[in-house]
C-alpha cells in the first residue's frame, strides 16, 4: 500500500515537472494520477493560440473509428468536436482505449485509416482549435 502523503508528494512533483499522468503498480496496489490542465489523449499539450494541434496514439495498437459494439459513423474532415469527445479507439489485445479530443475544435486531417496498426506517438488527427475556427469564420463574413 502507498501512503497518502507519498501520493501528495508525487502529485506535487508532477505539477512542478509538467508531467501530465503517471501510473504506478505495486505488489498490492495500482495508482494512476493525472494533473489538471494536462492533455491525456496522447497529444502534446499545446497552447490554444496555435493554428492547429495533433492528437497522437498514447499506446501501440489497432485504430478503430468506432467501437465494435456501436454503429457510430466515422469522423470526417471538417467535423466539429468538443473537448472530451471520442475520436476513435486504439485496440491492444481485448482492451479498447478511447481517443478523446483534448479541446474543442475542427478535424482538419485524418492521418490514420480504420483498422490500421499504429505505434505509440503516431499522429492520428490534426485539429484546429475552436477559437481559431470562429475567428476564421468571422473573417470570412467580414469580407462579404
UniProtKB/TrEMBL annotation:
<dbReference type="InterPro" id="IPR000089">
    <property type="entry name" value="Biotin_lipoyl"/>
</dbReference>
<feature type="domain" description="Lipoyl-binding">
    <location>
        <begin position="67"/>
        <end position="127"/>
    </location>
</feature>
<dbReference type="Pfam" id="PF00364">
    <property type="entry name" value="Biotin_lipoyl"/>
</dbReference>
<protein>
    <submittedName>
        <fullName>Acetyl-CoA carboxylase biotin carboxyl carrier protein subunit</fullName>
    </submittedName>
</protein>
<dbReference type="InterPro" id="IPR011053">
    <property type="entry name" value="Single_hybrid_motif"/>
</dbReference>
